[in-house]
Amino acid sequence: MKNGALRGGRGAKAGIGYLADRIIENAPRVPVRDLATLRKQFPGLGPEQLADKLIAGAANATSTVGAGVGAAAMLPVPPAMPAELAAEITGVAAIELKLIAELHEVYGRRPPGPLTQRSSAYLRSWTEERGIDVAKPASMNAALGGQMKRELRQQIMKRMVRNLPNLMPFMVGAAVGAFMNRRDTKKLAERVRADLRRAQVPWDALGELPPLTGPRELES
After folding, report:
1. Cα(70)–Cα(40) distance, rounded to whole angstroms?
2. CA-CA distance, 212 to 84, in Å (whole number)?
3. Angle, helices 47-72/81-106, rounded to nearest 10 degrees
């Protein structure tokens, strides 16, 4: 029994490490709309209204992901539930990373640097559940070393524990998954938003921001 528990613990740790690596790898590939694009897509909205729209859209998206994973548990023989849970966590992480990046755009706090550096900053924001302070170099480090990965694994573990009820059978799993993901995305967004509000730069003070070129930077 002891050996089985040890093997199970090592397997869980390896699985969390694998998820952390996939989230780090995917972060620069998450498409992010810059402020100019967002203002064109949502004309007439101010920063707070635009942030509300982005948060509502992301919460709906993560809710849909949670419902899909919960619904998989309805089947008589649930298909590879650990894989389903991993897919949910990486999918939700991508949606929330996009939201965090776009909230930084809305509040005029885009991190400086190339795509990989910005992506690392947003990943830190997701891991710590707070906005990035671009005035503090410590918060802008690429920071994908040991400490950052440990924090990321801890965040993934929290998500896994919270998302376990999604695997309950019948429609209960789908309903719980949808509710919990919507709630957690909104909670994360409001924490990040509160930090960004305190250091907000008005749009008319931003000047001409360069457009975000996105994942194509990785190919150059």
Report:
1. 36
2. 32
3. 180
Instruction: Report pLDDT digits (tens) over 109-154.
Output: 999 888 988 998 999 999 888 998 776 655 555 455 667 777 787 7
Buried-exposed string 6-17: b where 16+ CB fall within 10 A, e elsewhere: eeeeeeeeebbe
Query: Rounded to the nearest 5°, which phi and psi values hold at 23?
Result: -65, -40
| Residue 64, Cβ density class (10 Å: 0-12 exposed, 13-18 middle, ≥19 buried) | middle
3-state SS assignment for residue 66: helix
- Return the half-sphere exposure (C-beta side, CA atoms, 13 A cut-off) of residue 44: 0
* Contact by Cβ (8 Å): 24, 123: yes
Q: Which of 178, 168, 151, 177 is nearest to 16 (CA)?
A: 151
Residue whose pair of structure tokens reads 């952390």 in the numeric block: 20
CA distance 61 to 139: 28
Token pair for 167: 């695997």
List the one residue out of 164, 112, 101, 161 whose CA is nearest residue 135. Answer: 112
Sign of dihedral through CA atoms 19, 23, 25, 30?
Answer: positive
Kindly report whether the global pTM for this prediction surpasses the value 0.85.
no
